[in-house]
Each structure stands twice: as C-alpha cells, then as structure tokens.
C-alpha cells in the first residue's frame, strides 16, 4: 500500500508563498486568531497582585497542591458515566453538559473559610475568559459564572470536586491547572500533559441541553457508539452491502479529528457549534482546495495509492493523514462518507452513512438530467453528457439548527464528496432533511444541491436536424429511488426514503416541487403526451462471469397494432453512471398485436465474453433501450442497471475469544475465473480486536487458492467483526467478514 | 511600482501537484465541466445528414453567406440602445432581455419559402442546447425556443435580423455562426473572432425581467455607468473622501472580469445568475485560498508591492491580474471594495461601495466586542484582543433573490475583504440588506456576519483577582454608527444607515435584536446599572503635525459630590482599530460637585512631538478614557477617534479639453513638514481621459516642492476627473483631483 509521501519541504514553502511575500497580521488584528487546539503560551505559575520586593515570598502555611487525580481510567467513574470508556486514549475524556470529577490532594485539609482555590481550564492560544477559552471553576457555587463546580467529598487532605461544563462549551482538548490564591498573588500547578482532558459533544444531555441531544436511545447508541458500519451500494432492486470499520475509538483517532479541525484552521471559538464543525469537516474530508484528508479518484488508475474499493475502514486513512497532513489516496463517495462518519461519531455528533440510489450528482441544483436521442430515437452518446450515479453515499448528522427558524433541526445532510459543478463548492451541508422533504431549499447550507440529488427528472430529448431539441419523455421517478441506512441496533436495512420525499405522485409531492421552484430550482416544465406503448426491462441477479438473458417487455395498450423500432445499448459503466465501453448493440423491430395489456417479450442473450474483458471498478452493466413507434412517432424508453455479483472472501478465526489472548484469522480466496489476477491487495481489520493489516499477492493464477493467516490480540470485550477485502484491477470490492464475541 | 512577478513555472506545478498524482476525471463524469469562457472545439463547418458518396456536394444554387455585419461600432444602433457604447472594446457588447441587430449579406436575396438558415450562438466548451450554451436563432418566430429572432429588414441580398436573448441567459462572450440548411446537411460560416459578442446583465430590462432590473433611473445610471467613485473613510463625525477610478469601461477590463470567473472556475451554466456570480467574485477578488485578485496587507510594510493607500483606481490592478493571473499586492478594505465594484458594474450588475463607520469586523457573528479593564478601571491592553475598525468598506449589489422567499431582493451586501475568523470564509454575501435590517439572518449568505458588523455591542469587562470578568458597561450605539455611500448623480453623500438598522432605542430595534438572537447570534445579556456620572470626549478636527487640546467632559447627575479616578490613554491606531503605539497616558483624579448637569471639563494638551514620530498608515489617533467613581464603584468610559487631516495635492490641467487633443496635467506638492519624505509614489489617472501613470521621488526634503507634468489625450467626451495620490511610509493617502469636461 502506498500512501502519498510528504512532498519536498521546498514544495510546501513554494506552494504557500505563491501569494508572496508572506504578510504579517500586524495592523490587521491585535493577535493571531486562535485556530489551533495546540495549547499556546503557558499560564504563568505565579501571578503577583502587586510588585513584590524580591519575587514570590516563601510559602508559609498557604494551601499547596501535592497531587491531582483526573480519575481517567476506563473503569473509573468519569469515562463510565460519560460513555467514553471505549476510547483507546490515555487522557480523561468527558462530555459537556454533564458533571465529571477530579480529586486534589493538598498539603493539608482544605479550609473553605480561608483557603481560596480554583480549577482553571484553558484551550487554544491566548485563552480569554470572555471567549470561553479560559474557565476558572470554584468550589463554591455562587462564584461560578461559566461552568458549575462543587465539592463532592473531602477526606483528610483529599478533596473531590465536581465540574459541570456548559452544554455549549468548546469541544476539544483542554489544559487544566489548580490555582491557589495567596495574599501576594495566584500560585498555579505546573503545566502537566497528564492533566489535559478532552471535552466532547453530549447526545445524552437533554438538560442542560446540548444541541446534539438525540432522544431515541437506540439511534443514539448506533450513531455515536457503534464502530461497525454497513454501507449499501449496487442497485435499488439488488442492494449490495459492505462492512466498514469506523474505528472512532481506536488509538489516535480522536487526536486525528482535532488535527483535521486545526488543519482547516477552524477558530477555537467556533468549536462548540456542531453546525460549524460539520460544515468545516465537509470541506476538510476531501483534499480539494484545502489539502484535506482524501483525494478523490474515479479513473480506475490507483497506481500511486490505495484503490477506493480496497479500504476496509477509516482508521488507516485518518492515522496516515494525521501523521504529516498529506492527503491520502484514494477515495470515492462511500470512503468520504465513512471517514466523515468516523470524525462525527468520534467527537460525539450522532451520524450515519446513507446511500441514495440513482443520485443526480453534479447537476448544480438543476432538476433535470438530459439524455439525447437522434432523429430515430437512438441514444446520441456524443451529445449526452449528464450521468446519474447508480448510488451516492453521504452522511446525516443529528443536531438542532439554532441558526434557522423552528423545525429544521434533526437529521442534517452533510457530504464530503467534492461536487464538481456546484460553484466550486467542495463542501456541502449541513442541509436539513426536513427542509429538503418540504422543498424549503432557501435555508443554508446547500439544500438545493441535495434536493436535486433526490428529485431530478430524467428528460429524453430528441434532436432535430436544425439542432433544436424537443423533450419526448420525462421520467420523474427514476432519480432518488431509494435511500437506505443501517438500522439501529441490528444489521438490517432502514428505508428512509420517506424522510426525503413524499410518495411519488402524491399531492404533497407536487406542492413540494413547486415550492422548490419558487426558490429557483429549475426543472423541465413540459410534459410529453402519455404513451400507449410501454417498455420495461425486468431486473436480474447475475454472477460476474455468467451469461444471462436480458428481457425487453413491451406493453401495447393502444388497442391497435404497433411497430416499434427499438435500439438496445449495453455498456459497462462506472458507479457514477459514466459509460466505459459498449458491450452490446441491437436494433430489433418489434411488432405488437393489440393484446389485453400482457407483455410482448423480446429476449437478448448476453454472453460472458461480451463484457468480461471490459469490466471496470464495481462491475456495473447498464442497458438502455429506446425506440420509436412507427405508427405514432411516440418514443419509448427503458433503462436497467445490473450489478454483477462478486465471489465472497472466506474469513475464519481460531483461538479463544478473550481479551488479551492471541487469536488467528484466516482469509481465503479461490480464483474461479479463467484469467489470473495480478497485484491483488488483501486487507483485514476489526474494531477493538485487530488493527488494519494488508498483504499483496503479485499473482493469483486461475483455479488457485490463497490463504492468509494473521494473529491478533483483542483489546476489548464485547461483539466485534473481522472484515476483509480483496482488490485488484480486474476484480474490485470482493469482501468477507466474520463475527467474534470477545469475553473478558 | 512592483507588481509581484509570476513565480517560477515550477512553483505552479508543484503547488498544484501537492495532491499528487494528478487524477483524471475519467469515470467521474462524462466530460470536463465547462468552467471557462474560452470557446472550446469549433462547431463543424459541415454537418452531413447522412453518409455522402464523396464529401460535400458542389454548391449549386443554395444560399451562401458572403458577409456578416455585427453593427458593433459605438455610434451604431446596438451599443447605443444597450448602453454599452462607452466600453473601450472592439467586440459587439449587448445586454440580455433586449433585442440587438445583425445584418447578413447572402449571395442572393433570401427566399423564406425555400431558404432555411439560423444564427447560432455558442459559449464555452461542449456547447449544449439543453444547457443554454448552444442557441440556434431562426428568422421565423415559431421556430425559436430559447431566444427570439425575426427579420427586421431585407434589401436585395442584405437581411437584417433582430435577436432577443432571454433575460436570464448566460452572461459572457459568445461565438456566432450562420448555419444554412442544404439537402445534404448544415453548412456553417467559419469561426471568426470579429463575430464574437459579449452579452451582459441588463438593469434596464423590466420586461422581459432581468433579475438585476433596477427601477430607479438615477441609481441605475450611477451604479452601472459611472466610472467616477467617491469612497468615504475617516471618522463618522469627521468624514474624509477619496475619489476612485472604477474604470469599468477601460480597455481590457471586461475581458479581465471574464478571466476572473474563469480563474475561479465558475461553471458556464452558473453565469446567468447574479447571485452565483457575486458570491464567486467575493471569493475571487481576494487572493485567499484561490489565488484571487488582491493580496491583503495591513502591516505597513509594502516593500514588494503598492501600498493600499497609493492606488487611485481599479484599472491598473485588474489589468495586472488578467496578465498572468498572479495576485496583486496590496489591498485593504476599500481597495477590495473598489475593484469588486468595477467587476460588478462592468458585467452590468448595479453596485456601489458603502462605508460602515465603527465596524465590528472579524467577530464571527458574535454580537460583542470586549474591552478589558483591570481592578482600577484602567484598560488592560495585554488582555484586550478585539478591535473595532474605524470604518470598513464593502459593496452593495442590486438583484432579485430568486433563491429566497419574497421580499429579500434589492440591495445585497457582498464583501471581498477576507474575514479572518469566520470559519475560513474568505467570501461574504450576497446578504440581503432588508434581511439584516429585520434580523432575518437565517437566509444565505453570511447574514450573521454582516449583522454583527453593524449591530455589535461594546462590552467593558472588569477583571477581578481570580480571573473572572464582570461586565461593567455596555455601549450599544458605538458600532455601525453611520453607513454612507455616494449619492446618485452628484458628489454628495447619501446616509443609508436606516437601510441597515432601525433607530437606536426604538421598539423595532429591540425586536430585531431578539429575532437575530433566535437565529443564534449571541450577544451580551447583562445590562449594568445606569450611570449617574457620564463622560464624553468631544470630537476635534486636527491637521497632521498640529497640536491640540483633548477635552474630557464629565457630567454628574447624582446630586451628590463624586470623585472619578480617570485613566486616559492615547494611541496611534491602524484604521482597523489595532493600536500601534501609545502616545499618551494620564490619570487625573476629578472631583465633581453636584451641579445642575453642566459638564466639568478636563483638558489634556497633545503636542505634535507626542505623535508625529509614531504615525502609521492613515494617521488615526485613538483616545480612550476609563475610570471608577470612588463613591459608587461605577465605571465610566469614553472613546474618541481623531483622523489627522492631510495636506492636499494640487492638480491642474492645461490645454483645450477636446477628444483626441493632447492636454497636460500637473501634480504639485510641498513638503511642509520638518522631516523629509522618502520613496514617495505619486499616481495620476482619469477615466476616459488618462491611463494610470506613476512616478517615484526618492526624497522630498522639508520645505521643497515637487511638480510633475504629464501629457494625456482624452478618449471620450463628457465629464471626467483627473485623480492623483501621493504616498510614502511617513505620509499616506495624500490625494488631489481636478474636474475636466471633454468636448467633442
């Protein structure tokens, strides 16, 4: 596997100095804006109240701090109560809007009557009280203005304090100090990394109200705590699944997420707002114009990186990015969505990956996708430039929208896949799903784009001699056919199409489309005459390498005899709908007797040799039949995407599934094809049990079997999975998995 | 003058290949998205209807095109009727939604009964009818689907056609062809640059309705056709002016504007929408993250470029950018606004530069600006990090907002000055001015930021020993004190504050602030007790180099004796409010007898030597007095900005003011200061009369006078101005001008 290496140091300099000379912020602002979570200059250890004769005086009997216990072990109270015990991270991790505890050992029992002290929390450079980046917390209720603080317990020299961070405080990594007031000034504990703590979003916090509070317990558990994901692809009527390791709790991932915000220079003061964080991340997860996490590549050439289909999880990607900040190669939509999902869940924002089947991408809020036919009704490939993605993955994250009127909170669409035609917008969302369903696309952010992705019409134009086009057919139900996400708490599917759209043909649907048009979403206005001849291509389930019969079902409801000159094209297409090679062309003429509506079927035989040599990527075949009815001049059309099914990987484990005990995993694959597979990458990993491993097979000859065994040591008890993938140029996205349940 | 030169070619490559390897669009989309106005592959000269035995047949009596006349001379019908006669541009320039004319000379008279032809207009690569980038226009009404076309006149072989572009068509440079239909196929005229035409926005077009239609004739003339600008700066109660040459009609400017959209890769299909164009331009006018037009610099060090204060117009900047695409050094807010204004007016979008006095910049939609005081009520400079700009310039452009609900059209704020703290947002707007006035900040784009710029509160905090802060005074009327723009048709000022805000203290004002808070705009909630001691510093008009008396007027309405321990600080500040050097500190104790409200005045003498050595930039002095009332502990504060007045340049012209006759301009300046001026840049230019000239004086000794004479030849009749500036490190923004009226 070859991640892109760091460029020559020179490059960075030259890259950034193109706009040169470098200009200082002098005159522009008083100081640099804090946009990094890295702690800035230290808080002084001694802050005198007045000029002292000769430095700090000797301490007589003033309160002195001997030790501070952050109670940060997974089994201790903080991480348990704050649902952060799974993070493989040595620091204290708590959630805002919920009390956590810290024990302080003084040189003697604390005497409220005369001893004054405070816990000070600071984040970012130049911490300021008025900006919420410097927060002193006192043991006495009435003195606390930002965060709550109280003494929970005192025994001898040890005092245990409860701290309640505001439910809207900044999310990130804080430094912590204990400050004791003496008559001469304030004495502080030294800076100590072991006393740093992470404060995250808190979907459990209803009162005080965190804006990411999610009421539904099952959804909350799924969308914040589950590291095991299922991502849907393929076709709406033949859905395929693949597992994904989000790994939001794995070692280094939380720091990687903070690094991403730092790299995006998101001001510290914005980091309490899930809307701003989600929006910034949608820009940073892709590398476009900001050197973000993932480089998109749909070309089929992945020489210098990892094929998008080869990844099995987010961990490898995020760690590689955090280690140097160079974009990782390569991603397609589901990789962007999966890594984005890890980012959101890791910070505590409820999030899920959704798949929209037949997604009208890249069309810039325009509600139509054009397919051009020539005079005879045959598809004119040279002039048809739009494509509909077989599917597109994006994310939903759950939050209140305090920046919008009532009612637009809840699930929000965010999409990190760079939109190519949307005004150079390499970020998308958050856009309220409710707003999209109701056509209220006037509210930020980028609602018109998402609306078009699920609502576009497919318009067939016929081109006349003089170059003008006439719309001859409009298919309003093709795009946004099905929206799926993993069901909470199970491995089942949850159909959420109805959250995006009203039923096809319903009155509400019409109203919504009109509403959206009021807000400038353009769509095809003409509605061509209804057809008396219908055409349909039934779906098929086909194994890669198999031959099959493609059926064309004509229905003649005219009551008279009809003759259709049909053209059937078959293409190998990318999942973006972009054709790669033509595999079939036939132009049968079909005569339809006036029958009682039942179909006249025309069968087209497709042989393996027709397509096997031409497959790309995820092996999708796209058939489109168009034709003209001789008698009426009416145009009939039908489209069908067939996703060829792949062989599975056999994944097996051996050994006792117990924490810290070594186990073995074996990945097995047999090449049943007539050709050999070259440069085959095999990957395997499992959240909490096995870090990502991968292995390269230069050649797997026809008929041969490979078997790869690796050992691993489970880190955590509970249910998990081992997920494996096999990927090479000739055969992409072969996957397999096995469930494991680790005992303690 | 040193524009930044193009970097080594290497740099560009390395810069762009940091995310390497370069990835093709293969698989991602059918073809590249047309995002350049550069015409792509040529339209074929012959398009056969069917396979022909041996190429195109000999032409027998089919219609043949001999010549095409675009009627593009300034005095001809098109440019006159379309208000485009002033453009120094050889192409035809027309506005959409309004008919223009083209004459075609055929080989014989055109016979409607048998001759079929069309005018074809194409823009960008891969023109498509369905995308509005390929438009055939026929002489017969009924065949036209996108644009109107009709025969206006036929005489012998010459046919004059009227073409009516849709009022929402793409704005930019089109190619034009005449296509004749023959039985064998379509024959076209050769590609010919002299037949290209520009189509611009049309603020005159009410029916059909261009979304930039502006009803008010005076405003329309001012905001589209006027090249002479006045930009306001200084202080709200002592406003200074400077003239600016927008030069939107100068040679090369129109092409430069199209180049900016190409550089920003704005999809061609978006270029009919003024909202998308204005938004993209707000990002492209500054160089941040997209290698845009202008590099911001507030540091006072302009060694490698032109000082922002030195520019006299936009022409030099835009031409230098268009010639290579390297960002131009340097700009501050008024330069960004002025160049943006040129861009908008040049494309036909009504636009004006506005100045907001006391603008709360960089505060990321947060409605407060913090000033921190220590326990004694003295300003704590080390902890006060916010600043209020003495003034900030942005643009308003006029357009319907089809993307928003009814009522938010009209003037829209766009701002090209990079906002530093706004979520990496180096673009701002369009934000509806109406929405800002009414607190409806939930509508795109970036309304909360603009709202804060005119509505923030200034909050004085007092810091207690333990680090907590208590708000002791809130000034709600300081920010957004006055919003000015040039009055249409005159050189007067137009106060448009009331378009942004309801009157201070009115009921509406409160409602609006509450409304804005509903949409997440945070502000200071506490309101400290009303004061019984008031403090004011009256304004002053001061010449640079002069001494003056600063008055502190205390008012004691308590009815009792009061003692105020006051602290007065004086600073030299940048116009961003950022202090550069302290020039004065006094801490008088003032005793106030219970008088009938009349003021107790304390006078502080400021001598030239106090500040002259420390002046920066535009020579602003900022005085702030804070104090504590002994008896009540109440805090009193007052602030005053004094803009030191500069000497003027003397500008005179000689010769007869007639088109194409040589004239002379003389710029004169006497150094009345006690120090010499070094590296002094002098500039002079005038729209339609003189292109930008500049001259460098290495040294101007005290008491000496420089006089610089240049010749120029007026290009155009009518009123104009010659504007000059003098700029050096020690003395910035010295300007002068003279009116000229050129006869024909």
UniProtKB/TrEMBL annotation, chains A, B:
Domain of life: Eukaryota
GO BP terms: blood coagulation, fibrin clot formation; nervous system development
Catalytic activity: L-glutaminyl-[protein] + L-lysyl-[protein] = [protein]-L-lysyl-N(6)-5-L-glutamyl-[protein] + NH4(+)
Residue ranges occupied by any Transglutaminase-like domain in the UniProt entry: 325-418
Binding note for cofactor: Binds 1 Ca(2+) ion per subunit.
InterPro entries registered for this protein in UniProt: Ig-like_fold, Ig_E-set, Papain-like_cys_pep_sf, Transglutaminase, Transglutaminase-like, Transglutaminase-like_sf, Transglutaminase_animal, Transglutaminase_C
Active-site residues annotated for this sequence: 333, 392, 415
Keywords: Acyltransferase, Calcium, Metal-binding, Transferase
Cofactor(s) listed: Ca(2+)
Protein EC: 2.3.2.13
UniProt: Ca(2+) binding residues: 455, 457, 504, 509
Molecular functions (GO terms): metal ion binding; protein-glutamine gamma-glutamyltransferase activity
Family: Belongs to the transglutaminase superfamily. Transglutaminase family.
Name this polypeptide is given: protein-glutamine gamma-glutamyltransferase
Lineage: Eukaryota, Metazoa, Chordata, Craniata, Vertebrata
Name of the coding gene: LOC114773851
